[in-house]
Amino acid sequence: MKRIWAWGALTFGLLYFFLPLIGMTNFSLKMRRGEYSFDAYARVLADPKFQETFGFSVMMALFTILFGIFLIVPTAYWVRLKMPGLRPYIEFVTLLPLVIPAIVIVFGYIRLYNTSSWLPLTGTTTGTNLLLMFGYATLALPYMYRAVDTGLRTIDVTTLTEAAQSLGAGWITILSRIILPNVLVAVLSGAFLTFAIVIGEFTMAALLNRPAFGPYMQLLGANRAYEPAALAVIAFGITWACMGLIQLVTRFSKHTRAQR
Amino acid sequence: MQSDKTSVPAATVTMPVRTRRTLPLNWLGVLPFAIFVTLFLIMPTMKIVVGAFQTPDGSLTLDNIRGLFTPSIMAAYWISIKISLASAILGCIIGFGVSAAVVLGGLPQWIRGPLLTFSGVASNFAGVPLAFAFLATLGPVGILTVFLKTQLGLDLRLLGFNLLSFWGLTLTYLFFQIPLMVLIITPALDGLKREWREAAEILGASGPQYWRMVAFPILFPSLLGTLALLFANAFGAVATAIALTGSSLNIVPILLFAQIRGDVLGDPHLGYALAFGMIVITGIANTLYIWLRARSERWLK
Amino acid sequence: MAFLDIKNLEKVFGQNRVVKDFNLAIEKGEFISLLGPSGCGKTTVLRMVAGFETSSSGAILIDGKDVVSKRPNQRNIGMVFQAYALFPNLTVAQNVGFGLKVKGIAGSEADNRVAEMLKLIGLPDLGNRYPFQLSGGQQQRVALARALAPKPQVLLLDEPLSALDAKIRVSLREEIRMIQQQLGITTVFVTHDQEEALSISDRIVVMNGGRADQIGTPFDIYNRPSTRFVASFVGTLNLIEAKVIDPAANRISIGDQAITLKEPLGAAKVGDTISLALRPEAGSIVEGANGDTALVGQVMTSNFLGSVIRTRMKVGTAVISFDMFNSPGLTPPSVGETVTLRFTASDLLIIRE
Ligand SMILES: Nc1ncnc2c1ncn2[C@@H]1O[C@H](COP(=O)(O)OP(=O)(O)O)[C@@H](O)[C@H]1O
Ligand SMILES: [Mg+2]
C-alpha cells in the first residue's frame, strides 16, 4: 500500500522531468518534414553567431572561475585561520546574491559604472566584459564560497599552516602547494557549478549588451522554430556534464582517500 | 540623504572598530574580498535602494515608492507574487512527495543517488533553454499538446490552457522548483530518526498521530523555510519568463527588464523603486528562510 | 505462570539466524538483564518483544496472552532507547505526557501523572524545558518517565546508559533499579556491560551468538559459570589448562604441580586435558592467608590499578592473574620474584562445555 503510493509519487516526479526533455529532444529532431534528422543541430552548430557567443561564454566562465578561485580560496582560508569571528558576517554577505535578484544587481552596475561615473567600466568593451565577469563572480559567490569553506572544514587549516611555516614556507607556497590541493575537490565542484551558471546566463549579459550565449539563445528563440529546441538539448547536456563532473571528482576523491 | 551611502551592512561597518583591537595586518587578508563585495554587490544594491528614495536631482522623496501604487505596477507585483507563491507551494508539495517516497516509502535504495544527481541538474536547468523545452512540450505544437489532441481528443487551447499565462509559467517554474525542494528536504527527511517513530508507536500512537504530533512539527520549519526560498527563487527569475513569454506577461522582472532597456515607465527613479520592491519582497522571504532554518537546526542538534 | 514468557523464539535475517531457540520466563516485577557482546542478538530479542520486528517462529506471551500478532502500539509496553529518542519539538512535560495524550487521557489526570513522573525521576522543575536544553543523563531520565507514564505492563531498556559518562552511568543505573522496585514493573534491560548487569539485576541472561547460554542470578552467573563463554565474558577469569593425573581421586596437575579438586572429575581419563577457571580475586600470596591449595610461580607483571594490584604469574606454561587489595602496608610483588598463590580448592571450577 505504502509502496504503491511511493511508486506513484516517484513516477509523477519523473514524468514531470522527462516529458519536457523528451519534448525538446523530439522537437529538435523534426526540422526535416516527415522524418527525424539532425538538421537543426547542424544549422545551429554551423551558425557563426553560435560559435562566437558560445566561445565568448566559455571564456567568461573560465575567467570567472579563475577569478573566483583567486578571490575566495585565500579569503576563506584566511578567515578560518586568523579571523574565525568574522565567519558569520562573511557567510551572510556571500548569501546576499541569493536574496538580491541578478536583475537588480546589474541594474545597479549600469547606474554605478556608466560612462559618466568615477569608474566608467561600461565605456569600453574590455571594461564591460570585466564588469560582466564581476557580475558572474557575484552570482557564483554563494556556491563557490560554500564549497570552499566546506572543503576547508575537513582539513585542519591551523596545523597544516603551522607545519608548513615551520618548514619555512611562505604564504604563496602554503596557499598554492598545501591548501589548494587539499580543497581541490571542493574548488572543482564550485567551478563546475559556476560554469553551468555562467554558460546560459541571460539577464546580466543581455542588459550589459554582451554577445553571450544566453542572449543568443533568447534571440534565436524569438525568430526560429526548431533550432531553439536543439539549443535547449545542448544546454541541458552541458548542465548534465557539469553535474556529472562534480559527482565524478567527489567520488574520485573519496576513492583515493580510502586508499591512503 | 548623502550620509546614507556610508551606512553599508554589518561586515564593513565593524571594520574600523575592530581594527583597533586586532592587528591591522589580519585585515589585509580579507581586504580584496571586502573591496570586491563592496564594489560589486553592496554599492550597486545601495545605489538602487538610495535611488528609490531620491528625486533625479538628488533630494529625498517618497514619490517613487508612491509611484509603484499605480494599477498596472501593482498588477505586475501581484501576478509575480501569485506565480512565485503557486510554484513555491506546488513545488514544496510535489517535491516533498517525491522525496518522502524515496526516503520513507520503502523504494529500493539505489534510486536515491540518481534522483539527487538528477535533481541537481534539473534545479540548475533554468533560464532560456528551460523555456524552449516547455514550448516544445506544451506549446501550440508541443509534443504533449499534439498527443492530447490527436490521441485523446483533448484540445488544451479550447480548455483555456496557454503556456504564456499564469499557469503556464507556474508549470514551467515547477521544473526547477520541485528538484530544488527535493535537494533541500531530503536531508531533513533523513534527519527524522527511526527511534522517534518507534518511540511514538510503542507509546500507543498510530501512524497519523505520529505524523501530526511529531514528524510534521519537526519538519515544519524546514518546509516553511524552503517555501520561502522557492518563492524568492521564482520571484527573481527573469530569463525563463522573457524567453517564454517575450513581453506578453506583465510580471515585475519583465517590467524591470524593459525599464532598464528603454525606460518604459518614463521615469528612471521609478525603476529604482520597482527594483527596491523586488529586494524587499525577496528579502522578507529569505529572512523568513534563514530564521526558520536556524530554528529547525536548533531542534535537530 | 510467568508474566512475560518467551518460548522457542527465532529470528532469521536473510541467511542469518540471529536469534536461536530463545526461551525465557520472567516473573511479574522481575528485573532481567540480557547480557552479551555486541551483535549477539540482544536488541533483536527486545525488538521482537516490543513488536518492531516480527519473529520468525516462537511465541511471546504477556500475562498469558500471545502478543505476536499485535502491533507495537497495542502491546502496552514501555521502551527506553539508547539514543534517548525524545521528541525534539515537545517540551519535557509534553514528552512525558505523549503516551497519555494518544490514549485520550487529558486534563488534570494527565497533568498529575506527568508531575508524578517528573518527581519520580527527580526533575520536577524541568517540565517546560526542551530536550536540547538537557544533559544526556537528564534526557534519559525523561525518556524513562515517558515510557512509564502510561503504566505499561512491561518495561524494555536497550543499553540505556551506554551513551552516558561513567559517573552518571553508575548513579543512573541505581536510580533505574530503585524506580523499578518502587513500581514493581517487569523489566528487561539490555547491556553489554557485565558490571551493570551484575549490579542491578534479579536474574541475568548471558547471550552468545543468538542463544541464551546461561540464565541465573548475578551470584550464580559470576560464581558458577556453566560454559567457557560465560566464564570468560563475566568477570576477568583465568582459564587454565590442566592434565588429569588420577580421575578417581580428583587429582590434576597444573605445570607439574599436583592439585586435588573438590569437584568430581567425572568421566575424564588419565592424561586428558581439562579447562579450569579461577577468579583473580580468589587467591592470595599474603603469608598466612587461608587456603588449602597452593601454586608456585614466577611474577611476570604487576600492575597497580588503584584499589587492587593485579599480578600475572607463570606456572609452567599456564599464566594466572590474581588481584590483591591495595593497602598502605603492602609491598607489591616484583617482577621475576617467585611467589606462592594460595586459594581454596573449591574456587577452581571445572568448565564443561
Ligand atoms: N534489520 C536487520 N537486518 C539484517 N541483519 C540484522 C538486522 N538487525 C540486526 N541484524 C544482525 O543481527 C545480529 C544481532 O544484532 P543485534 O540484535 O542488534 O545485536 P546486539 O543488540 O546484541 O548488539 C547482528 O549480527 C546484526 O548484524
Ligand atoms: Mg544492540
Automatic annotation (TrEMBL), chain A:
Primary site of residence:
membrane
| PROSITE patterns (UniProt xref) | ABC_TM1 (PS50928)
- Subcellular location per the Swiss-Prot or TrEMBL entry: Cell inner membrane; Cell membrane
Q: Which GO terms describe its cellular component?
A: plasma membrane
Limits of the ABC transmembrane type-1 domain? 54-247
Q: How does it sit in the membrane?
A: Multi-pass membrane protein
Xref: SUPFAM superfamilies: MetI-like
Gene3D superfamilies cross-referenced by the UniProt entry: MetI-like (1.10.3720.10)
Report if keyword Hydrolase is assigned: no
> Which GO terms fall under biological process for this protein?
transmembrane transport
Q: Which family does it belong to?
A: Belongs to the binding-protein-dependent transport system permease family.
PANTHER family attached to this UniProt entry: INNER MEMBRANE ABC TRANSPORTER PERMEASE PROTEIN YDCV
What is the name attached to this protein's record?
Spermidine/putrescine ABC transporter permease
In which organism is this protein found? Pararhizobium antarcticum
Species classification: Bacteria, Pseudomonadati, Pseudomonadota, Alphaproteobacteria, Hyphomicrobiales
From TrEMBL, chain C:
Keywords, alphabetical: ATP-binding, Nucleotide-binding, Transport
Pfam families in the record, alphabetically? Answer: ABC_tran, TOBE_2
Query: Which Gene Ontology BP terms does the record give?
Result: quaternary ammonium group transport
Q: Which domain of life is it from?
A: Bacteria
Q: Which GO terms describe its molecular function?
A: ATP binding; ATP hydrolysis activity; transmembrane transporter activity
Q: Lyase as a keyword? A: no
Q: Name one GO cellular component term.
A: ATP-binding cassette (ABC) transporter complex
Q: Which residues form the ABC transporter domain?
A: 4-234
What the entry lists under PROSITE patterns is as follows: ABC_TRANSPORTER_1, ABC_TRANSPORTER_2
Query: Which family does the entry's similarity section mention?
Result: Belongs to the ABC transporter superfamily.
Protein name per Swiss-Prot or TrEMBL = Spermidine/putrescine ABC transporter ATP-binding protein
Provide the species name. Answer: Pararhizobium antarcticum
